[in-house]
Fold this protein.
Amino acid sequence: MPERDRIAEPWGTRTPYAPGEPWPVRVDTYLEEGLSEAEVDRWVQSSTILHSNGDGLDIAVKDGRIAGVRGRAVDRVNHGRLGPKDLFGWQANNDGDRLTRPLIRREGRLVETDWDTAMEAVAGRTGELLRESGPSSIGFYTTGQLFLEEYYTLAVIGHGGIGTNHMDGNTRLCTATAAASLKESFACDGQPGSYTDIDHADVIALYGHNMAETQTVLWSRVLDRLAGPNPPAVVCVDPRRTPVAAAADVHLAPRPGTNVMLMNALLHHIIGNDWIDRAYIDEHTVGFEELAKRVADCDPELAALVCGVPAENIAEAARLIGGAERLLSTVLQGFYQSHQATAAAVQVNNVHLVRGKLGAPGCGILQMNGQPTAENARECGADGDLPGFRNWSNESQVEDLARVWNIDPMRIPHYSAPTHLMKMMRYVEDGSIRFLYVSGTNPAVSLPELGRVREILAQERLFLVVQDLFLTETARLADVVLPAATWGEKTGTFTNADRTVHLSEKAVDPPGEARSDLDIFIDYARRLDLRDKDGEPLVKWSGPEEAFEAWKRCTEGRPCDYTGMSYDGLRGSGVQWPCNEEHPEGTERLYADGRFWSDPEYCESYGRDLVTGAPLEPDEYRSMNPYGRAVIKAAEYLPPHEQPDDDFPFVLTTGRTLYHFHTRTKTGRVPQLRDAAPEVWVEMSAEDAAERGWEEGDLLRVATPRGRVEARLRVSGVRPGVVFLPFHYGYWDTTGLAPEGGDGRAANELTITDWDPASKQPLFKTAAARLERIGTGDGTPAAAPTNTGSAPVTREMEPTRGGAPAMAGEDTSGPHGGGR
Amino acid sequence: MKRVGMAIKELHRSENELAGELLAVSDRHKADHELFYLGRDLARWSQRHVRRLAEVGRDYGLHLDSAPQGDPAILAAVRQKGAELLGRHHDPAMLVIRDLRGLHRAAAGVSLDWEVLAQTAQALKDRELLELTKACHPDTLRQLRWANAALKENAAQIMVAD
């Protein structure tokens, strides 16, 4: 089998195809040194865990250990392919740093203890606070990386058992705006499009979505279309020259924080030139007149000035988008983590609604997710929603949820939207939340303004529980640390960004005494003695398959209907929800008939004011007459809250690199990935660097009113006036918790505490910063990848490669077509 | 006609006052980031209204200041510092309820003033004045709904938690 250095070539070999043809199969395999496929003891079905794409794979087991992975040719998502993080990332499971016993704080230090002592402490403190202060003193902060069964169990415990409104996931940082924009436009979460839209599209527009680095296999699909006959045109909106920008026909690099202005200018051209579908608008939408008026008032010359993008480029992008027969749009953090996040993402939905491009092959919207199981956190109600996309402000839907759980509806808090993370942090800060249970996430590195976050989490009066794989920065602040099993060590399901549900089966035992998150949550519920109104245990299941069956009952009749699925049925390819009697094979595209889930009695959300964030009251929503129609919402541009000035002349934007995931707790422990991007860097344009006489590799200090970071300079294709920092780098592999004296290296030392009023997603893309040089380099370039968005522009250097340890198999000899 | 001038003048005053109150609430709750930023964003709407009312007022012989009243920087800084010092305590959260209630009342008053002006403009068939009310009054209603929603979002935790 041919092998490739997949660090040097993250997207692997091209397998070109034409529009409408099936994407050819290419099976990628990586096994540990010296092991052949024939020697593998067992292959265990799963899916990828270090991004949102949901690529089907099999885990290789040798002598009771995970020893490699192979892409599943039959899977509808990846047709056998895997990305670098999937090929190599599993090695973190076997790392010697894994937590193997619970830890408890005694006399200020974390010491090992047994499960009973640890869980009694956790449940004991919960009970104490419930008696003293009530449920509003208890908060839960989970992740986008557990399994569906675990989120659902947590949601039952929090919303139904304890009765707290304070539950959110770190999906708030990555996918909250995806959900919010879908709720605004379609009155319900649920991805309209399908990844197969790439096979059919004639124009693909990527808005703030560096797909090449965030979903490498999906980008391979685009690259294969671009290499085949009749390729699609590509439009890219990104302030950096990413691999997507390099492949684009039109690249718009707006000033960060001006997305709404740019979208209004695009819509100005599209509506002004009558590239719209009147019949579709009339029959399937409400609100068009207001949008038409709003964007008619948007002067394209002024927009060009505000966004810092040539007016003719905006017009050219609009011409491509406006002329597309089969238009696919994708959106990610460049919109979601920026100023006016929801308002901007909603305008992308509006482009499709006014052009009537929804529900047909190639006509998709992908409001992407960042994490592998973000969709489940949303569906299951573990992240600021109620389970089954139920509407917290609709009494009859809350009653229906109470019926499923067999409890009094009054036990489910629904007097406001579930508390979002940043608000929970505020309640911890003011001391009204005294117990915070964090599972599978690392807020001490991932939240904005880390100085503040560390102070909040370190408070004596807070009882902090952290459930994770490693002793993260956050775990170091905890009162109790619970060692969790991860992917490959437990069974469960999870759902990717295009609604594809995968089964991930247990391949090996977790290390030491580590337990699955599901087992830990169930133990917690038993110790709290949570019961339904008949005195039966509220959490009625003890294993993943039972939990899945319970979840199915919770989704019956809801948009995310799982009732037609089973663990057995998921052994094969993934399946897209809704999957029920009516759609036993699942559903590839939503809204094919132009009917939306917007009936006031059925919809998940009545929406919010895009500027003030105020939720619409039920009668306000009804008065828009949305029954079955989509809602077109216009938005005015507002300038960002923190803008560059004389003291802080640059716009700071943060982001990711292809080779790492989140705070590197896994990928930083994998040699191939660690070495591809070993330390933090800062990007600046050639123009800005030359003006200051700074060069590649110089040591810079980046400062905002909130903190300072030291990093080596990479002169890259970022827009002049903007600097970029990757956010992955924290302190677990340096000083432990925080910078000791001096400057830090976590980008979030610098970011601002501010969020989008509608989605409550924090802003990571708009802050004002000052830079100074504190040391000249010795000619060594910054340790940033050369084949990604951080590609150098001023000089030649050794290209990023992985060498022999990064060689992975690629088999393109199999039958074409693959799983659909 | 004299009464129309009085209505414009009164609205000019009440919008100025609402803008000032939004800014003051923003400063007082600097530790609550959403109140801080939205107070400032929404004050901008009232300031825009002040400017437009001053323009229209000229047609009615009024000499209204088109520059919104500023908030003395020193006072704002004092309020913000106070908010930061109290940020670690829960009891001052009661002030949030008081302040949002005050904002709601102020915005409701401004909203009624716009109703009066809109009715007057229709009776006088004054297109310019009517257009102004159509452009501005929806902003006031959004300010009003925001104050109500922010109160709803915050009330339970403030009242129930220790």
